Amino acid sequence: MTNNRLLFEGSESLTNLQKKLETAVDDPNITELEFSDITWDNAAAATTDHNKHENSRTLLVEDANRVFTERPFEKIIIRGGHGQHPRTFQLVRKLCFERLQILPESRLPAMVDTSKLVELSMISMSLSPEIVSSLAEILRSSSAVLQKLDLSDTHLGGIEERMDLVSSLRENRSLRSLSFSECNLRGETLSRILSHLFDHPSIVNIDISYNKPELTSSAIIDLSQLIWNTTTLEYANLGFLAFGSGRQVDLSQLFRCLSDENYNPPLKILEIGGNNLRDEQMLEIVTMLTRNENLQHLDLSNNGFTNDGIQLLSEHLVHIKGIRILDLVENPFDLHGVQMLVDHMDSNTTLIAIKIDEGFSAAPVGRDLGWHLDLNWGGAHKLQSSQVVPDSLWPLILERTNKKAELASALLEREPSVEDVIFHFVRKCSLLPLLSS
């Protein structure tokens, strides 16, 4: 058991499993249950021989029913197993399937209360026509509150046979997060899915990474229209759309959509790593960054940007408006490229994180880049109009600089030196002569 989650494993004895069920009922701190390779059986009792079989333990439905009847749980995770009893799912608010085999005759609406189910993850499942039809019914339900649907690695490539699921996306009004990552979707198929999300009233996150649209795919055009037309979309993951092909993904339409001088879509996070982008696309990217005030996080990792592309990016740092986090890991530029970023950081006060390869971060020029980023986090933008630091600002600078250490461990995997930051801050503000006197 870890904190609030209680684990049931198929290798455990029936007695131990029954004791855990009692704990689940009696302990108010338990809010999540995880069943790993548990076989649920409608039989009133299991035979002795069956109980002794290490990989085929049977948990009596009567005991489980009492658990789910006496109290609801926030989340139930099912790993492996088969023949899941409907009672398992009836009072669940968050349901997560991971590599779960559902019998072909099963239908999800018989198991799920659509007025309670908020999250549904069906990663790596084989979706039978019956399951697809059940999903479509859930999405169409007037009582549906489903906010997160993860269909990653479900191989929806033959979506022509599953158009009922696709069309249900247009009728749904509750979804906020949708993942079709690694579903073997190609351009036309992916385009049909995206077109059914146009004007969706609540969608916030969309993940279509690790699929295979054509080089100049209509799917990119449709995604651009989705970003443009949807007033709620804040996160889009288009990573590795050329995975394994060696080809470059044409994202020009997307860049133009996000570079409009009169309207910035609400998108805040864009992941386009692993698409074989080259220096030739950097001009489109910097145009987007200088015109778009809403985009805050851009992932350009695992592409083909050399020092030439980084030079163009560096020269436009002064004009970048909204971007706060930039991921440049696994691109073929060198320390000279990092130095170009450093040379132009004085003109930028918005960037707080630039991810570069670990070896670059440890080098002196990498540390210098880190100092500039720490300064921006510490409030350097407040000094643009003055060379004098107000006394009231110093506590804020120190507080934010100290908080930066927590942020850095997560974003940059490095610990900034507070002393270095303050010294660099003072030097930049031309206060050293005053302090020395």
Automatic annotation (TrEMBL):
InterPro entries linked to this entry: Leu-rich_rpt (IPR001611), LRR-containing_regulator (IPR052201)
Annotated keywords: Repeat
Record carries keyword Repeat: yes
Domain of life: Eukaryota
SMART domains assigned to the protein according to its UniProt record, in alphabetical order: LRR_RI
PROSITE patterns the record matches: LRR (PS51450)
Family annotation (PANTHER family): LEUCINE-RICH REPEAT-CONTAINING PROTEIN, LEUCINE-RICH REPEAT-CONTAINING PROTEIN 34
Protein name: Leucine rich repeat LRR-containing protein
Organism: Nitzschia inconspicua
